[in-house]
Amino acid sequence: KTKDLKMRKAHILTGLAAALTITACGSTAPTALPTYPDVSIPALPGAPTDAGSVKSNKLLVAPGVKSNVPSFIQSMFVDTVNTFVTESGSEVIDRQLAQRFIDEIQLKENLSESYDTYEGPVEAKFVIIPTITDYSWSSEYEKAESRKNKDGERVHYPAECDYTGKVKGNLQIRALPSMKQILSLNLTGRESGSKENPPSRKCDEPSMINGAIKGAIADLLVKGNSDYVTLSKYVSSQGMITGAKKAEGDIYFETNLGRLNGAKEEAAVAIYQEIDGELVKIASGEMVDKDNVFNNKSYITVDEDLVPRIKRGMIVMLSGECTGFGCKWDRTLKDMSN
C-alpha cells in the first residue's frame, strides 16, 4: 500500500541524509582567491591577453501547439524553459518579438515540419520550441487507519488523496533565420503528491491536479540528466579560461564567467576547445564556493590529472551536470518520490 511505501522511503531517506551530510563536509577553496599569486599556464594560439567579454546567447522561446493540450499547460513548459535559459546565463528576448515570430511562422503540430526562412527581425541566434505532446493525471483515495509500529505504539494515519501527474514533451532548437532544426529532444516527466484529510473521496481538487501536472512538467528538465546536459551546451553563456591561481598547493583556474552570466557556487562546468568549428570537450570542472564567485569572474577546479591540459583561451560553459550536496540531495529526493 502507499502508506507502507512512504514509511520505507522515510527510513531510507533518514539514512541517506546522515550519509550525505558527512559527504557535504568537505574542504573548500581559500577565501579571496584573487589575492593569491598568478600561475603561468599555456595559451591557445590567438588567445586574447585580456579577459574579453562573455558570449551570451539571445534566444527566442515560442510555445509549441498540440490540439489536445490546453494553452495554459503549454505555458507551464515555456516558463520552465525560460527559467532554464536565464539560469544558464543567457537571455530570452522581448515577448513582442516572440509573438511576431509566432504569428508569422504559424507553428504546426507536426514536430518534424520544415519551415520557410523567417523574414521578421532577428535578434536571437536560436528559437527554442517547447511542446507538451501529452498529459494525464490520476488519483487514489486511502481511508484513515491505525496500526502498531515496530515499538508496539499505535499510530494513526489520516485519510488522504494521492495524485500523480504524467507528461510527455518535445523540445526543439531551430536556427534563426533559417529555421533549420538543430536539436530535438523527447522528454518525459512524472510527479506525485498527497493531501491529508481531503474534503471528499473523489480526489478531484483542481489545485492538486494542476500541481501534479506542473510538477511533472518541471520534471522534464532536471539538472544532471542527459537531456539537461545536452541542452546546456546550446543555451549556456560561453566564458573563457583567463588565468590561474595557486593557493595552499592547489591550482584554481580563473574564468570571466561570473554571476552576471549564470555562474554559481559549486556549479558544474565543461571546458572546451574549438577545433574545426566544433566544441571539443577537454575536461569537466566545478566552480568553487560562493566567496570566490564574483560578478565578472569565478574560479574552477578540475581533477589533478587534467590540470596540465587546461589552457588560457579555452571555452568555459555551465554543463548542467549535478554536483554538490544540495543538487545530489534534490536528485535523491526526486528519485525516491517517484
3D structure, described in words:
- The protein has helices at residues 2-24, 71-87, 95-105, 206-218, 226-235, 324-337; strands at residues 58-61, 91-92, 126-142, 145-148, 154-157, 160-175, 181-196, 239-247, 250-255, 268-275, 278-287, 298-302, 315-318.
- It is an alpha+beta fold and 338 residues long.
- The strands form 3 sheets. A 6-stranded antiparallel beta barrel has the order 8-9-12-11-10-13. The chain has a 5-stranded mixed sheet with strand order 2-1-3-6-7.
- The longest helix is centred in the N-terminal third of the chain and has 23 residues, at 2-24.
- It starts with a helix and ends with a helix.
- The relative contact order is 0.17.
- Mean pLDDT is 87; it is low at 22-26.
Beta-strand content: 25-35%
Q: Give the proportion of residues in helices.
A: 25-40%
* Number of helices, where a helix is a run of at least 4 consecutive DSSP H or I residues: 6
Structural class, please? alpha+beta
Mean pLDDT figure: 87
Count of distinct strands: 13
Shape: flat
Please provide the ordered H/E string of secondary-structure elements. Answer: HEHEHEEEEEHHEEEEEEH
Q: What's this model, at a glance?
A:
The chain has 338 residues and is of the alpha+beta class. 26% of the residues lie in helices and 31% in strands. A six-stranded antiparallel barrel has the order 8-9-12-11-10-13. The protein has a five-stranded mixed beta sheet with strand order 2-1-3-6-7. Strands 4-5 form a two-stranded antiparallel ribbon.
